[in-house]
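Memo subject: From amino acid sequence to discrete backbone structure tokens
Action wanted: Derive the backbone structure tokens from the amino acid sequence.
How to read it: Take the token row as a discrete description of the fold.
Attached in line: The record itself begins immediately under this heading.
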Amino acid sequence: LRPAERPGRVSGGQLEVAALEGDWLQSEALGLVAAPPRLYVAGTLQRADGGYAAMVACFDVAETITSASCWTTQVSGGRGRGLVLHGTSVIAALGGLDETGYGVAFVGEDGASMSWSIDAPSGTGEFDAVTVVGGQPVVGGMMEADAVVADAGPDPGSAVPFITAMGSGPGRDRVRAMVAVGEDLLLGGWLDQSGTSQDTWAG
């Protein structure tokens, strides 16, 4: 958006700052981090063969509007959710890896992709959000159909839940958004309270 207080810009005007073009049926961006002069995006690509890939891309938007990315990394079978900058790396939360699991990707300038993944039955585990608290990256999502926040270290064994929320119903519970406030976390998502609906939840 073009802020009204900037000279020569009109309030509410839309400005395209980046576009990712390629040979896929559709694509979407689900996570954004602005770190001038760069913009980092995490999302999902649907390929022409019907398969999916998680995507993390870097765009240089310092001087001009451009569709050229600094670099792009794809993780086949995944769905890119949230991302956060941590040191020299981009950490991305990945859900729905071929519908059989979920994981975390530590992505660097060399285009490194998947760091690790956890096998899980379809619909029982996905990561949706990632942030940094006290220097430690953490992910939020769903483990064994319960809403969860867990450490996001360099291997699957470090995904140890330290916040788990269970609704009163038998359905899935999930953290969909997460933001750090000092040493605390604000969470948004849903808990299944009746077995037939998913109720908005913040914690």
